[in-house]
Amino acid sequence: MRHSSAMNIARSTLPSTFRPATETPPVRWTSSAGMTGYEDAVAEMEREAAAIARGEAAERIWLVEHPPLYTAGTSSKDADLVAPDRFPVFQTGRGGQYTYHGPGQRVAYTMLNLSRRQQDVRAYVAALEEWIIKTLATFNVRGERREDRVGVWVERPERGGEDKIAAIGVKLRKWVSFHGISINVEPNLEHFGGIVPCGVREHGVTSLVDLGLPVTMDDLDLALRQSFEEIFGPTT
Q1: Which pLDDT belongs to residue 198?
Q2: Of 27, 198, 223, 224, which residue is the catalytic one?
Q3: Mind giving me the DSSP string for 154-188?
Q4: Which of 16, 50, 110, 224 is the most exposed place for a label (fewest CB within 10 A)?
Q5: Overall pTM surpassing 0.90 (yes/no)
Q6: 3-class DSSP state of 54
Q7: Nearest CA among 236, 194, 81, 211 for reference residue 143
Q8: Which pLDDT does position 7 carry in this prediction?
Q9: What per-residue confidence (pLDDT) applies to 219?
Q10: What is the distance, to the nearest Å, from the Cα of residue 171 to the centroid of all Cα atoms in its chain?
Q11: 183 near 217, Cβ under 8 Å?
Q12: What is the pLDDT of residue 202?
């Protein structure tokens, strides 16, 4: 996943946190058990984003897992859908190209009010990247940014390259964000073969378990929350 703007970011000019400029309620931290249908998730985000924009609800982070599916962002290319009949394909309003979601991958939907934080999409995406990088560091994984592509990457010297471990895709409406991030804990990596993930052909995809780390979803969720609060502020 990614957002639709170019990402030539001068990283040194971006803030290290993305906290509200004025006092606001803590961000609601919620998690759904089992598999969440993609269309249901989008409908829920739409409702939440509208309520947040109206000032009727506090910001929210929503952790889910999806059944196997592909999503097509606004920049997706037909040629990047390699196996169109493998899993359901959903057109989505987020920026970016094709991505995979499925069991063993943590999706964190981020519904934050940027009008109370910083009205800068590039800075927001950089903050999401930093959130992922801090979370991975909990497990001694060095996640890295790339100036020419969104997401978080890990070097794989034994394979002569690098792999993507986390993706980012956002959409804004009235300066309230939705969609968010995904981190691969233990998904079936073969399922990524039905697409060209995010349009990147030169590199592979990995997960925490693929890197040899016995990390559970609960382990990741705890690290996600701790790292989120360092960057974005308190949760409840």
Answers
A1: 62
A2: 198
A3: EEEGGGTEEEEEEEEEEEEETTEEEEEEEEESS--
A4: 16
A5: yes
A6: coil
A7: 211
A8: 35
A9: 98
A10: 11
A11: no
A12: 66
Secondary structure (3-state) at 74: coil
- Beta-carbon count within 10 A of 148 CB: 8
pLDDT of amino acid 8: 35
pLDDT number for residue 228 = 98
User: And the tokens for 75?
Assistant: 């920049």
Q: What pLDDT shows up at residue 200?
A: 67
Residues 158 and 165: their CA atoms lie apart, in Å, by 16
Q: What is the pLDDT of residues 91-115, one digit of tens each?
A: 988 877 899 999 999 999 999 999 9
Between the CA atoms of 3, 13, 129 and 109, what dihedral angle is there, to the nearest 10 degrees?
Answer: -60
Low-confidence ranges of the chain (pLDDT < 70): 1-15, 198-202
Report the alpha-carbon distance of residue 190 to residue 180 in Å, rounded. 23
Task: Identify whether the C-beta of residue 122 lies closer than 8 Å to the C-beta of residue 5.
Answer: yes
| Strands 28-35 and 89-91, bridge-based pairing | unpaired
- Beta pairing, strands 60-65 & 28-35: parallel
**What does the DSSP 8-state code read for residue 228?**
H
CA distance 45 to 49: 6
pLDDT at 199: 61
CA-CA distance, 64 to 40, in Å (whole number)? 11
Q: Tell me if residue 93 is catalytic.
A: no
Q: Residue 101 and residue 234: Cα distance in Å, rounded?
A: 28
H or E element, residue 129: helix 121-137
Strand partners, 72: 91, 98
d(CA 95, CA 22): 29
Q: Are 36 and 3 in contact (CB under 8 A)?
A: no
